[in-house]
Amino acid sequence: MRRIVLWSLSTLTVLVLLFGYHTSTSGRLDAAPAAVAAPVTGAAAPEPGASDETPSGGTADDEAAAGSADAGNDAGSDAGNDAGSDAGTAAGSGDAADGSYTGDVASTRWGPVQVAITVADGRITEVAVPQYPAGNPRDVEINNYALPVLVQETLDAQSASIDMVSGATVTSEGYLTSLQSALDQAGL
Amino acid sequence: MSTPTGATAAPPTWRAVEQIMGMPVSVALRGRHAGDTGARDAWAAVVAELREVDRVFSTYRDDSVVSRLGRGELTLAECPPEMAEVLALGERAERDSGGAFAVRRPGADGSERFDPSGVVKGWAIERAARHLHALADTDSCLSGGGDLVCRVAGPDSPDWSIGIEHPDDPTRLVGRVPMRDGAVATSGLAHRGAHIVDARTGRTPQLVAAVTVVARSLVDADLDATSAFALDEDAARWLAGRTDRTGLVVWRDGRVETVVGRVA
């Protein structure tokens, strides 16, 4: 059976979608789950993970975990890069003050997650994730394939814990300097 | 590869590389047959098959089947059956991309070029990988110029860790993706002689620097990476509408966007 992986940015999408859903349901930004519960500017919000403030009654962590399996399908059909605007639409019924809101760090089964949003005219105009799990969880399905995780790395064959490189320059002249070249040489 | 410094001891990986079809074709094997005569025979079969594909499909050879077909010296019926298979894949990609991908497209001088190379690479690597998949209890990864097919022998096999090259610097990565059974393809402007254009306009993409697509087969991954790249500013939006894909779009302005396609 194929092992399926959920990567950090998938987690981001899931949480953003959960956030959108809950604000839509409640119509109040300050009743959102823990990941977006602490405004930097704007009105005060409940403590992160305060279960009686969460619209559906569970703790924020439980929500994130329980929502993961089916939220994956939502993320897939809505497409990850549309999630921000979807959440913005869902939250449009709220009466949140304009400004930037950075959620407290939420503990999820994948690790700590933090979400920051920007609100303008009662709509979410930007979603950012200052902190997301760096691990490689394998127990949640979102798609048949893992989402690439972004890195900033300069690599050589000695330091690279990678097996192969996908790239457009791995041909002719580019190959001579490419990491794939180094990998190949190291293995021969 | 070199000895890993991580905590998990990876099994030894056997590697080989050959220049075929104008690109390095690299193999990595782990497991029971890694490096034994069975593996070497399978690799020899991969190499031989790809050299034959080159003889049929190389647009750099005047005497290739594809060159003769392009000049009208052969009919499609006179070509090996693989030619029709490749052209059908090209037509599918042309439909799926709204015409941005096409095997017949405007050349630099405005005349029409017949060039199915954008289909052939992924198709050929995917097909040739079956020789490696026949090795029992052996994980394999076969790469043709940065487009690759991964397979693991079973649930206990570790992932293949695939680095995604920075479009401006082949010694850097912009992403990583763990792979088990599937394919990764990246399209950009660095391919030798394969400058991707929007087939509808002949225009070279301006806003997108590279597109990486992860999919079940390398045929799909490669065609979608090329199509998304040709679509330029619509690359991420288009890819997000594709079923059973994930991907990564690197924009010229330095932004990097991950994309989750639709779930099948």
From TrEMBL, chain A:
Record protein name field: FMN-binding domain-containing protein
Pfam families: FMN_bind
InterPro entries: FMN-bd (IPR007329)
Chain residue ranges for the region called Disordered: 40-98
Gene3D superfamilies according to UniProt: 3.90.1010.20
Biased composition (Low complexity): 40-49, 65-98
Organism for this UniProt entry: Nocardioides fonticola
Domain FMN-binding stretches: 108-186
UniProtKB/TrEMBL annotation, chain B:
Keyword annotations: FAD, Flavoprotein, Magnesium, Metal-binding, Transferase
UniProt keyword Flavoprotein present: yes
Flavoprotein as UniProt keyword: yes
Swiss-Prot/TrEMBL catalytic activity: L-threonyl-[protein] + FAD = FMN-L-threonyl-[protein] + AMP + H(+)
InterPro entries hit by this protein: ApbE, ApbE-like_sf
Domain of life: Bacteria
Gene Ontology terms, MF aspect: transferase activity
Enzyme Commission number: 2.7.1.180
Swiss-Prot/TrEMBL cofactor(s): Mg(2+)
Signal peptide range in chain numbering: none
Gene3D superfamilies in alphabetical order: ApbE-like domains
Protein name, entry field: FAD:protein FMN transferase
Organism name: Nocardioides fonticola
